Amino acid sequence: MMRIIVKELENTEGTVETGHNVALGYYAQNQEDLLDKNDTVYDTLDKIAVGDIRTKLRDILGAFLFRGEDIDKKVAVLSGGERARLAMAKLILNPYNLLALDEPTNHMDIRSKDVLKQALANYDGTLIVVSHDRDFLDGLVDKIYEFRDGKVKEYLGGVMDFLDSKKMENLSELERKNEAIIAEKIKESAQEKEKQTDKTQNKHLSYTEQKEIERQQRKIKTQIDNCEKRIETLEKEVAELEEIMSDPSKVTNYQEMILKYNKLKSDLDQQFAEWERLNTL
């Protein structure tokens, strides 16, 4: 939906209309990668600043934790979190009255998230935010849209009200529940397809060929079972790490934790992809 709103993707049904006076700014998941690596931090904002705002660039950068010699650093040497902060500062500097933000806290440490949240809380325009970060959304949004089973449902209130209505503690729990439902539907569809195929093939196969097919099917089933066990283990590790990251007092090395978290998410995505592949065999 976000990509349709910002005209990156064409809608297949219905219409998408932007209000007459709406000036839309978009923060994509890879927004920090779109910065010019040869520019300095200061140059990044100076290139787009116009009017009196040019005299306040150092203050704006300071609000996003770029102070002193930091503003002379090349974008190329910044960490992922620093580039994300700079990309957001650049976005807010533009005269947009609607910001569409797609997972804006990716790669950000806790301090950066707090800075971003404060900046957005003071923003006068409208925000559309796609995020699984409960703490970031808490107090920032006043309406939730849930996309599920091909439908969109609106919830008035903040993210905590939404989670209370779902009897859940975090958004990742909801995401895992939805993934489990989708996975079960895929599995049922694959099993039905397999039954139909077997009925057709078995009429023409020899005893030896049927036995070989059954052996291959048992092997695939074992691989699927092992894959599901790995997915369950990874989901638990991700949930535990998210719980730790939500409490700054428990974090000793946030950068190391972010790397571990991204690795777990990547492994989980790979396992889901492998699970889907096996279920199509």
Automatic annotation (TrEMBL):
Sequence ranges assigned to domain ABC transporter in this UniProt record: 2-106
Every ABC transporter Uup C-terminal domain range: 205-279
One GO MF term: ATP binding
Coiled coil spans: 171-244
Coiled coil recorded as keyword: yes
InterPro entries: ABC_tran_C, ABC_transporter-like_ATP-bd, ABCF_ATPase, P-loop_NTPase, Val-tRNA_synth_C_sf
Keywords attached to this entry: ATP-binding, Coiled coil, Nucleotide-binding
A Pfam cross-reference name: ABC_tran
Protein name: Putative ABC transporter ATP-binding protein
